[in-house]
Amino acid sequence: MEEAIQAFQYLFSLLFFSFATALGLLAALLKTLRSMPWWCSCPLCEAYVTKSWAAHFDNLCDWYTHLLRESPTATIHIHVLRNTVTANPQNVEHMLRTRFDNYPKGKPFSAILGDLLGRGIFNVDGELWRFQRKMASAELSSSAVRFFASCAVAAEVRDRLLPLLDLACAGDKVLDLQDVFRRFAFDNICNISFGLDPGCLELSLPVSEFAAAFDKASMLSAVRATMTMPLVWKAKRLFKRGSERELREAIGLVNLLAKQIIHQRRKLGFSSSHDFLSRFMACVDDDKFLRDIIISFLLAGRDTVASALTCFFFLLSRHPDVRAAIRDEMDRVQLERGGGASHDDLRDLHYLHAAIHESMRLYPPVQFDSKFCLEDDVLPDGTFVGKGTRVTYHSYAMGRMEELWGSDCHEFRPQRWLTEDGVFEPESPYKYPVFQGGLRVCVGKEMAMMEMKTVIAAVVRRFDIEVDDDGSCQPPKFVPSLTATLKGGLPVRVRRREES
């Protein structure tokens, strides 16, 4: 028996050594083939192998933006990744509307995020996607759910966010506003989606195991999607090494806590509840599927809103004229209504609505999105896309294209969204795909806008938020994540508004 075990160990070691040697040879081969015609000669391939892009740009998205600007069609192809990347609105419409069926999320993408998102709405196609979208769309359009959500957001702002900012004023403390907004959004999405209150934004700022594990799993999954070749991460997952071992541990904790949420929701009863989980539980018996639904709602409802709010206040701190214009508009609405601004009044804040859209043009919460081509196709700009190719539309780069937004595309100008009469005028979702477009357009768009406008109106009315950056005015740096996440957070000082 002992000899058999030793033989097995020897065989396993031999296989592992052979596998490692093969990886080394493959790396050497790739290095040699870089000069061959089929290898993309653009700097991004060099960046993929050596990470040299960091020597020229603070963010990988800025590198993509540079490459897309240099392309006559605003489209590039990265041969080593088999990825076509575009900032052309006609191509985006082709993918999201005209040839929607030919550009699903696809099995390769589902494999990358499968461990975290499972069969959730953002990681599936076909019937599973249609079922979840139909359910979510029906609930989000319900007046009862909208009222429940607006009350939950207003209570979180009134009872937790504003007192926390007041406390920061009193102590003249530096506050990580990104962390604050992630806690705020986490409390909201858990309340609205699951009928549970984790209390992450209480004044003591308690540590949430669930939120921490979810953050880590999200970050490591993003590394898979953007920084690692499939062969590498799959090998690391097979042998439970490095980042893949950490990802496995984080997802294990997420699964455990999601199971507890489902159990607690069942214990409390869900027949008359307005939260999304209760509605799904009424027609879904599979706890693993419910877990996937929970994680998808968390990703959509927490990370995107927190990212959008963080970047908005980053920009607002550098543009006091925009802050003043928002305050003037709120004062005007109050005077017209004869009192304090209500939830209905938020819809009349056209300049604020424009400022939020302008912020997300420059810093979209989801910086790019990918689909996979089912059958050979030709994009409207003439780019051939082979079967199985990953096709990515780059929202971050699109917001920085002069052909789309003019020579002032780098400037934060909310008025570009307003008519001469000061009324908000939307752009094509294919020119501005922050909320996607076509059949996959974000069903939670209106709720997200309500949440952001409620927060901004309440905070701007009472406080001045100043980024604590020693006056250096450096552009933000992002870490790998499924949504835009600032490296080092957003340290700010909070001042009470000086009343004239």
Automatic annotation (TrEMBL):
One of the record's GO molecular function terms: heme binding
SUPFAM superfamilies listed in its UniProt record: Cytochrome P450
InterPro entries: Cyt_P450, Cyt_P450_E_grp-I, Cyt_P450_sf
Pfam families: p450
UniProt keyword terms in alphabetical order: Heme, Iron, Metal-binding, Oxidoreductase
Chain sites annotated for binding heme: C442
Keyword Lyase: no
Reported cofactor(s): heme
UniProt similarity note: Belongs to the cytochrome P450 family.
Descriptive protein name: Cytochrome P450
